[in-house]
Amino acid sequence: MQSLLCAAQSGGQFAERKRARRDAYANCQRRRLGFSLSCVRGGHRLVVKGAGRRELLDETCGVGVIEFESVGKTYRDGTVAVVDLNLTVPSRKITVIVGPSGCGKTTTLRMVNRMLEPTTGRITWDGVPLRSKRKTTLRRQMGYVIQSGGLFPHRTVLENIGTVPSLLHWPKAKREKRSLELLSSVGLERKLAHRYPVQLSGGQQQRVGVARALAADPLVLLMDEPFSAVDPVVRAELHEFLLGLQRELSKTIILITHDIDEAIKLGDQVAILRIGGRLAQVGTPQQLLDEPADAFVEGFVGRDRGFRSLSFQSASGLSLQRVKVVRDAETATGTGPILVVDGDARPVGWADPERPGRVFPLGSTFSPDTDTLRTALDAALTSPYGLAVAVTADTQRFAGVVSADHILATVKDVRVSIAESISIREAEAAHAYEPLPEAEGGYEPLGEPEQEYGSDEVYDQMAEAEQPSESDQVFDHMAEPEAASQAETGDEGGTEDTLVSVEYPTEVVESRHNGDLQSEDRRIPDQQDEGPQANGEAKQRRGSSVLQ
User: Fold this and answer.
1) Smaller CB count within 10 Å for the chain: N or C?
2) Are 176 and 157 in contact (CB under 8 A)?
3) pLDDT in tens, 460-514
4) Would you call 249 helix, strand, or coil by DSSP?
């Protein structure tokens, strides 16, 4: 009996471990990338084979960047959609591609999941070309959100969300559980699970589309103008929903839009394409607002880019001031602005001293710890006294006021610092490409000789060290009999130290006699100068010398 209980316990533990391995294997991101993995519980181990042994190496799930390397796309009819696109999409960030209609935004997005193939260049994912992956495997690793949701009208909300898990052959119970979890995560009530898309509003349909794209926990999320078909109020809600979802999931998201305000609000990186499919500029939203690359980017961003750039400057540096505060507007007396607060010290409005009991609208408020200079300036502009009311972030209690003039002075200091940093970077970039100046009088020597010599002394040492070459010795032997023949014939100048050498018109022959190095130009006499007789005599002497 005891043995049966032990066997049952061991069998239950084995089943539990098997179930844990199966769940970890199904949810492993690295396995979807095509690695050979052995997943165990919450993690996995990479199996490496070699030299008759198996090594288990611990690995961490991660997703590399997506890179466009000189990518171009030209359709069969000659239409050029994308030209020489070089772009790096960082992992776990939102990259927004924005531009006017016809600039190749959607074409670029479709080349990522190989719905379209690039004509030139290549696209890599974690250093691996996308062409080396199967299309079906690649697309199941990427979620896709299209315009207007793109839901199947004949399927319920729950069935639409479970589309990709059903393609992956998930069990029905697991698909329903995952769909209900995502339905709650996108902010939809459970009672909508069995409705059809036509029974939903535009914002609800778009949320279901996002949930469907996230159903199989993809590594990359592609979004093609997902919020273009909804009204501005719903769009703002969906923006906050996407940002909150990204903070929770940290997906690699590529979003396409034609709205520059949407791109600046959502994107960690923004790439602007111009007409013709060329990349105009890529950078953070603040870089696009502060440093537009050219007139096209400046015009596309808009004339109010200076005001919008304040969204990236914190308001924590503002110095707050005090004003008179009352709890009852009836008791407000005196001159100057008087702020009315409630029992919890939350600001209500501005009291009117001339008519007791009347309260002016407060305007908007801001929190110095969490808000930006744009929010603070907007609060000052909406206030009847030009004072921005600051509140605490957690309790919304009154913290102080700051004037619009003080905010503008802070903005001025910020703009000056940004201009100085830009000029410093430009100067450093220009200095990096500036050629080095040449030294006066030519290039400087690499080193100095250990001992200086005069020019004559150097040449004397060279002459002493020089040894007669084989050609010099030949001419020396030729010259000795020639000198003897001249002494016999009684030619003038024939002495024992006389140097006689034979040389062709373009050669200088050196010979050494009696230990002295001498050089003389010896040429065949010209027929016109000395006549044929002298030329013949010279030839005869040279022949006799060679024979001797």
Assistant:
1) N
2) no
3) 554 454 454 444 444 444 444 444 444 444 444 444 444 444 444 444 444 444 4
4) helix
Quickly count: other Cβ atoms within 10 Å of residue 105's Cβ: 25
Nearest one of 182, 183, 266 to 226, comparing CA atoms: 266
Contact 348, 328 (CB under 8 A): no
Going along 178-251, which residue ranges are E strands? 220-224
Distance CA 417, CA 425 (A): 12
- pLDDT bin (cut points 50, 70, 90) of residue 159 is very high
DSSP 8-state class, residue 198: G
CA angle 120, 123, 124 (to 5 degrees): 145
Q: Which residues contact 273 (CB under 8 A, 6 or more apart)?
A: 97, 98, 99, 103, 104, 105, 108, 279, 280
Residue-by-residue DSSP string for 4-26: HHHHHHHHHHHHHHHHHHHHHHH
**Angle, helix 202-213 to helix 172-185, in steps of 10 degrees:** 130
Neighbours of 389 (CB within 10 A): 27
Q: Is the pLDDT of residue 428 over 50?
A: yes
Q: How far apart are alpha carbons 59 and 520 in whole angstroms?
A: 85
What domains lie within the chain, and their CATH numbers?
Answer: 2-58 (no CATH), 66-311 (3.40.50.300), 324-410 (3.10.580.10), 465-547 (no CATH)
| CA distances (Å), origin 337, targets 186, 323, 353 | 45, 7, 9
Strand order in the sheet with 53-58: 37-40, 43-50, 53-58
Largest pairwise CA distance in the chain = 148
Give the C-alpha separation, 107 to 329, whole Å: 61
| Structure tokens, 279 | 């990349």
CA distance 473 to 494: 21
Which has the closest alpha carbon to 96: 351, 319, 282?
Answer: 282
Alpha-helix runs per DSSP H in 382-489: 404-432, 455-465, 470-489
Own/partner pairs for 112-118, CB < 8 Å, 24+ apart? 112/66, 112/142, 112/220, 112/222, 112/254, 113/138, 113/139, 113/142, 113/144, 113/222, 114/138, 114/139, 116/73, 118/71, 118/72, 118/73, 118/82
Question: DSSP 3-state assignment of 155?
Answer: coil
Q: Enter the pTM of the model.
A: 0.62
- Label residue 81 exposed, middle or buried (CB < 10 Å: 0-12, 13-18, 19+): buried
pLDDT in tens, 261-308: 999 999 999 999 998 889 999 999 988 988 888 899 988 888 788 888
CB atoms within 10 A of CB 281: 20
CA–CA separation, 82 vs 148, rounded Å? Answer: 25
Mean pLDDT of 322-339: 83
Express each pLDDT in 166-184 by its tens digit.
Answer: 888 899 999 999 999 989 8
| Residues 109-148: tens digit of each pLDDT | 999 999 999 999 999 998 899 999 999 889 888 999 987 6
* CA distances from residue 237 to 63, 133, 233, 240, 243 in whole angstroms, order as listed: 29, 37, 7, 5, 10
